[in-house]
TrEMBL record:
GO molecular function: DNA-binding transcription factor activity; transcription cis-regulatory region binding
PANTHER family, A to Z: HTH-TYPE TRANSCRIPTIONAL DUAL REGULATOR CECR, HTH-TYPE TRANSCRIPTIONAL REGULATOR RUTR
DNA-binding positions: 48-67
Name of the protein in its database record: HTH tetR-type domain-containing protein
UniProt keyword annotations, A-Z: DNA-binding
InterPro entries: AlkX_C, Homeodomain-like_sf, HTH-type_TetR-like_transc_reg, HTH_TetR
């Protein structure tokens, strides 16, 4: 029987990839899966491209050709993880809720829970606290893909749900949400529950939206 699989986004049958491209995509996923597993097991600083290639059952030159360098593999690994993570956050933001702030708090809570249960994130955060892991900058300090992707997603949601505020204010609120959420993931306050942290971040964002503006004090 002919394969009549369909894409998720439409009713059109999925187009079969050429064999070479299908192999390349599978190889790339296998390498990233191997890298993710090894980073979670022993920390990214202890993982070499040769070890990843061996685990993925491909040659070391193949890994270099696809990713360019260890840094390229790091970026690809974090980018894939971020894309999956942000898809979940987007779905959480779209869940029905009594108010926009309730929806926001629920989505932030989802993000905090997912980060706590994500083996790669847990490994990176644990290693960073010991001062050893090289993946942390890709999750925090380097804007692409985590910070930029999250900010764009949250900014769009804020603009849609808080239309009475100008884009400057909603952009600022989105930035606060992303930065505080990342901060709570990397350095969670010991006295806070996840729900408490989500409520605090939501309150901070709402405070940015609602704050009064006026003349700056003299000298500012």
């Amino acid at each position: 029987m002919e394969d009549t699989s369909f894409t998720e986004a439409s009713n059109r049958p999925a187009v079969a990839l050429p064999p070479r491209e299908a192999w390349r995509r599978k190889m790339r996923d296998d390498v990233l899966d191997a890298a993710r597993a090894m980073a979670a097991e022993k920390g990214w600083d202890s993982v070499s491209l040769s070890q990843v290639a061996s685990r993925a059952e491909v040659s070391r030159p193949t890994v270099y050709k696809e990713f360019g360098s260890r840094g390229g593999l790091s970026r690809a690994l974090v980018r894939r993880e971020a894309e999956r993570f942000l898809i979940g956050v987007d779905r959480a933001l779209l869940q029905p809720a009594p108010t926009a702030s309730d929806a926001l708090a629920a989505a932030i809570l989802y993000a905090l829970k997912e980060a706590r249960e994500n083996v790669l994130v847990v490994s990176v955060v644990k290693a960073a606290r010991d001062g050893t892991d090289a993946l942390l900058p890709y999750l925090t300090a380097r804007s692409d893909p985590v910070v930029t992707g999250a900010r764009l997603l949250v900014r769009s949601w804020c603009q849609s749900h808080y239309q009475r505020f100008d884009t400057v204010r909603t952009d600022q609120a989105a930035d606060v949400i992303v930065r505080l959420t990342l901060s709570h993931i990397v350095l969670p306050p010991p006295e806070h529950t996840l729900r408490g942290s989500a409520e605090l971040i939501t309150a901070a964002a709402l405070g940015v939206l609602a704050r009064e503006t006026g003349p700056s004090p003299a000298g500012d």
